[in-house]
Amino acid sequence: MATRHKADQPTLRSLTKRQWIRIASVCAAVGLVVAGGAATRSIYSHASGTPTAQPTAYSISDEHAASRGNARDALDGAPTYVNVTINGKTRTVLGTDFTDVKSVLDAGDITLESGDTVEPSLKTKVDESTTITINRAGAKMETEESKIPFNTIKKETSSLPKGTEQVETEGQEGILEKTNLVERSGDKVISSNTFASWVKKAPVEKVILVGTADPQPTEQPQPTTDTSDSASSSGASSDSGNASQPAASNSIGTTAPVGEMQQWAHDYLLANGGTEADFTATVFIISHESGWSVTATNPSSGAYGLAQALPGSKMASHGADWATNYQTQLKWFWDYCKDRYGSIQGAYSFWQANHWY
């Protein structure tokens, strides 16, 4: 039996051409699996290394932005993204169940006009490696900046006498940068569509400290009879002077609304069980995320709207007019904060610690 088994066993020379091809295919497949495993390990090793620096001014334009940081949770499943380039400027459209080019343009609220050229065609199937290129003759991308107003916050402190106020921080306006696809006829603008916008510089709130301490009764000076009493009196005066220096309060403060959107947000919150602190938290987050631009669109992620929802269509759960109605967007934002962080102020505290939410 041993001899026959040895005789039946194939040798390298006895292998047919088809068998050689099959062996080569198996080796190649094993090589790909090994290489893929090494590449994957490299990716996860990099991800678990030293964390990158957190943003310090705003969140909408940074990779650690709030909604973008939670994008995969927001999508309730495996996300799909497709890059769209219009006249040389690229923007990412994020969504689910993309089927073809047209479905991507619909999700990104990108409207084609007569004369536009699109590659690949509208019915072409897409995946995450697809880049859709649109060229619009006679139009070009133009950048403009607009100011983001700052808010005034009042914070109570026991370090100041009641009835007195002191400015702790001066306010500074922020800057919202927009990239528009503009078509002109001479000097006349025929059409202008916002392609992307982001907070280039976040506003800085003006902080005013409001005293809450009861005034201390004035003590009558005592006559001194020797130098030691005088020194003691001088020392007490010095200590009192140090104690009178105002200290910032840990309170989130009360914010004065600026503009129609903020006034509505303030009144709606207070009429529905919210507090002044909830409004202050709202103003801070929205000012840093979108600069109160209802159509703010981040080019690198597709985050959209006041709260930079990812994708923007998530807000459809609160109204079909989610793309343009600030009230619908704010209601979605408040519910998102409560669901994810327990409260609006919970989201604010997380933002303060991480510079995203």
TrEMBL record:
SUPFAM superfamilies xrefs: Lysozyme-like
Domain spans labelled G5: 134-214
Residue intervals passing through the bilayer: 20-39
InterPro entries named among the record's database cross-references: DUF348, G5_dom, Lysozyme-like_dom_sf
Region of interest (Disordered), ranges: 212-254
Superkingdom of origin organism: Bacteria
Biased composition (Low complexity): 214-244
Bias-annotated ranges (Polar residues): 245-254
Entry keyword Membrane: yes
Pfam families found in the cross-reference section: DUF348 (PF03990), G5 (PF07501)
Keyword Transmembrane helix found: yes
Annotated protein name in UniProt: G5 domain-containing protein
